[in-house]
Structure to design on (524 residues):
């Protein structure tokens, strides 16, 4: 492990070796600096032109057309255009309008310039501010301005025209799809109508076949109940109007035997005053009354049966009240029987329909499946057609809004101007880098030369080489004074050349800071 003193001694030895070979430093610095500074000074000036554009995407139509027309993301569209603006066609157009293509005779040089131009034109901006900068540098300030103007014009034109182009493409596409689905809808309607027409007898009002069958059976059951109710009502009315056993002697129906029967009953009452019930005359009279009463009852039954059937047949002379009662009774029976007959007719029709449904029951699954498929296709085509129709109207409104208004208004915040002073190349930085690089190369060359040489440069160097305490003494060189003068001359030469080089370096820096131009400007 070396001590600090030993490190200092070693550093002095290295510095002494470099100093004795300072000619390498001088040669390196002069050769590299002169060549490098000449190259930097001969670099043409670069003039930068910049344009700043603000894309105003706010519009009063946006809230008004919300949910009515299609509104794209204009901010992102502009951002996309800014990133994809420099296409090959755009660059070729810029080169053609600026006559840059005339400078390159071969296709290889032309392609190289296209690629270089794409890298040199800078377009920056964000959707947050909608401010876009366009920059370009060139040795010709007029050309730089022209390129920026053309780039800005292409940017504005493409941004304004993209929305219209997209709307037109969308409208055309929607119209094509609309025509296609309109034809599909018509085909579906025609096929469905033809199927219904061919199977109209087996398609009950659009219901499912099994539902119609079940409903028909239910309707027949309801009609059976209604018919039974009508029959019960008819029988009830007949039972209430026709006399029973307890009303045989008080019937409301008069017969031709009533007067004769009343006379015989009065005679019987008179004879009972004189005779007993076993008297032959009374017995005979009773038998006559019984026979006449039987005939009366028979006649009453005939009249009532006729009335129950809706007709009135008199064998005697009925009273006015009897005639009115019988007429009402007969009319009521007629009405009830007419309603019952109508129910019977309906039931018969439903029974025939039920029989037909049961006969075609085996074919219904296939018919219903086909009908469901046709209805599904028709509903799908109709739904898509209506959606496409709505979208087309929306697209047409958007297209018309784009044509009559500007969704994006471009405002030039900073127009392109022809640059007066150059912005490059960065000569000061290049001068400094060349100066430092030349000095480092010289020091490295001097150090390597000192380390590869066997020459002892100092007493400390000799002591380091042979070891401590092995030096007996020192002797002066015979030509010591001459060598000393030579060393001083070399040192003066090195310092003078370094000072001159430093002066040139300072002059170059000052010139660049003051004029911002190459020193060759004075030669023009």
């Amino acid at each position: 492990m070396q001590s600090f003193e030993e490190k200092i001694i070693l550093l002095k030895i290295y510095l002494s070796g470099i100093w004795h070979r300072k000619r390498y430093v001088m040669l390196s610095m002069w050769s590299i600096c002169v060549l490098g500074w000449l190259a930097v000074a001969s670099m043409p000036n670069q003039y930068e032109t910049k344009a700043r554009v603000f894309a105003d995407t706010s519009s009063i139509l946006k809230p008004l057309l919300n949910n009515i027309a299609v509104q794209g993301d204009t901010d992102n569209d502009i951002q996309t255009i800014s990133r994809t603006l420099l296409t090959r066609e755009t660059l070729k157009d810029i080169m053609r309008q600026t006559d840059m293509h005339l400078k390159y005779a071969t296709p290889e040089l032309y392609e190289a310039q296209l690629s270089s131009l794409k890298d040199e034109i800078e377009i920056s901006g964000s959707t947050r501010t909608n401010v876009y900068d366009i920059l370009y540098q060139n040795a010709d300030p007029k050309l730089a301005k022209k390129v920026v103007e053309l780039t800005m014009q292409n940017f504005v034109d493409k941004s304004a025209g993209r929305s219209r182009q997209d709307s037109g493409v969308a409208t055309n596409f929607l119209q094509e799809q609309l025509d296609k689905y309109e034809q599909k809808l018509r085909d579906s309607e025609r096929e469905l109508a033809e199927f219904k027409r061919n199977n109209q007898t087996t398609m009950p009002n659009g219901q499912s076949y099994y539902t119609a069958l079940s409903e028909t059976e239910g309707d027949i059951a309801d009609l059976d109940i209604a018919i039974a109710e009508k029959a019960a009502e008819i029988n009830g009315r007949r039972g209430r109007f026709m006399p029973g056993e307890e009303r045989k002697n008080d019937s409301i129906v008069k017969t031709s035997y009533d007067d004769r029967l009343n006379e015989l009953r009065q005679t019987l009452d008179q004879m009972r005053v004189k005779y007993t019930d076993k008297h032959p005359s009374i017995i005979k009279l009773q038998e006559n009354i019984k026979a006449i009463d039987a005939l009366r009852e028979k006649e009453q039954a005939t009249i009532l049966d006729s009335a129950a059937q809706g007709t009135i047949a008199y064998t005697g002379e009925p009273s006015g009240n009897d005639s009115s009662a019988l007429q009402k009774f007969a009319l009521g029976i007629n009405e009830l029987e007419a309603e019952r007959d109508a129910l019977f007719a309906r039931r018969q029709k439903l029974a025939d329909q039920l029989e037909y449904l049961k006969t075609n029951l085996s074919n219904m699954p296939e018919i219903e499946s086909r009908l469901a498929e046709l209805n599904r296709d028709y509903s799908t085509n109709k739904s898509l057609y209506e959606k496409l129709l709505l979208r087309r109207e929306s697209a047409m409104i958007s297209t018309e809004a784009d044509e009559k208004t500007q969704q994006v208004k471009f405002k030039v915040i900073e127009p392109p101007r022809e640059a007066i002073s150059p912005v490059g190349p960065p000569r000061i930085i290049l001068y400094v880098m060349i100066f430092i690089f030349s000095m480092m190369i010289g020091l490295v060359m001097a150090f390597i030369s000192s380390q590869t040489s066997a020459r002892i440069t100092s007493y400390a160097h000799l002591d380091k080489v042979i070891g401590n305490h092995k030096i007996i003494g020192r002797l002066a060189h015979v030509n010591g004074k001459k060598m000393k003068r030579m060393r001083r001359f070399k040192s003066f030469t090195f310092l003078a050349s370094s000072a001159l080089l430093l002066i040139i370096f300072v002059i170059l820096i000052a010139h660049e800071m003051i004029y911002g131009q190459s020193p060759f400007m004075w030669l023009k």
